[in-house]
């Protein structure tokens, strides 16, 4: 664990915050680059990404607090402290999705087209952010043969591979929503499997909460891909 990246006097850079910030910066650059490649508005892409990032952080924090509410009853102000972690990706995903629906309807954006646009960028940002989890020591794996399984790095590697695939796939012909469905399906499967090696989750009906969410997301993504495939053949 290296929760502190470096410290100069009283000025401290925390590993978790650094990698979250790095993930966001890379996501913004990726959004601008992809906007030029796909010939869409770079301004709309970065505005949407920023809106989703803010709403996602809020949702991720609220989900974490809900899971660990007892830890915050004695210290109210610790609810707002993110320097040592405390974000749950699925909580952020749900919040960002709802916010994206509202934003898209307000700006009259084609929802599924922009979902596809964001899919490889979300995988990229998530993959980089997971490195911060490794240094911070959160989202840790089980102890096997006296060693802690670095599942944060495994998940990060899978997400970066998925991101590279989606960046390439989006440039090929596809139906609106197809890329995003592939992103959800692939990530849900990988997260479901990885959770078996998590050491910080509680079981609900033999599965962790993220596994249950992964299961429902996978079924939804699979149903959407089947619908798109049938639509092509009609």
How are the SSEs placed, and which strands pair?
Elements: E1 4-8, E2 11-14, H1 15-38, H2 42-67, H3 89-107, H4 111-136, E3 143-144, E4 147-148, H5 151-169, H6 178-194, E5 203-204, E6 207-208, H7 209-233
Antiparallel strand pairs: 1-2, 3-4, 5-6
Stretches where pLDDT falls below 50 for ≥5 residues?
A: none
Work out the count of structural domains. 1
Cα shape: globular
What structural class do helix, strand and pairing data support? mainly alpha
Average residue pLDDT: 87
> What is the N-to-C succession of helices and strands?
EEHHHHEEHHEEH
Q: Into which percent range does the helicity of residues fall?
A: 55-70%
Strand order of the largest sheet: 1-2
Largest sheet: 2 strands, antiparallel
Counted beta strands: 6
What is the overall number of helices? 7
Strand residue content: 5-15%
How far apart are the termini? Answer: 55 Å
Radius of gyration: 18 Å
Notable characteristics:
single chain, 234 residues, mainly alpha, two-stranded antiparallel sheet, 7 helices, 6 strands, 67% helix, globular
């Amino acid at each position: 664990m290296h929760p502190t990246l470096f410290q100069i006097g009283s000025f401290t850079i925390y590993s978790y915050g650094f990698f979250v910030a790095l993930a966001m910066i890379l996501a913004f650059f990726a959004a601008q680059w992809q906007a030029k490649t796909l010939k869409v508005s770079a301004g709309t892409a970065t505005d949407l990404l920023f809106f989703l990032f803010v709403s996602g952080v809020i949702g991720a924090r609220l989900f974490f607090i809900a899971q660990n509410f007892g830890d915050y009853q004695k210290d109210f102000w610790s609810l707002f402290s993110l320097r040592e972690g405390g974000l749950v990706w699925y909580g952020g995903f749900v919040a960002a999705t709802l916010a994206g629906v509202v934003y898209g309807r307000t700006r009259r954006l084609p929802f599924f087209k922009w979902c596809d646009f964001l899919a490889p960028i979300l995988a990229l940002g998530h993959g980089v952010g997971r490195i911060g989890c490794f240094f911070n020591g959160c989202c840790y794996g089980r102890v096997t043969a006296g060693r802690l399984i670095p599942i944060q790095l495994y998940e990060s590697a899978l997400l970066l591979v998925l991101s590279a695939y989606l960046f390439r796939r989006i440039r090929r012909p596809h139906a609106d929503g197809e890329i995003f469905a592939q992103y959800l399906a692939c990530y849900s499967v990988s997260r479901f499997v990885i959770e078996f090696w998590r050491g910080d989750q509680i079981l609900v009906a033999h599965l962790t909460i993220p596994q249950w969410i992964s299961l429902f997301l996978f079924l939804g993504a699979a149903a959407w891909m089947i619908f798109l495939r049938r639509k092509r053949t009609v």
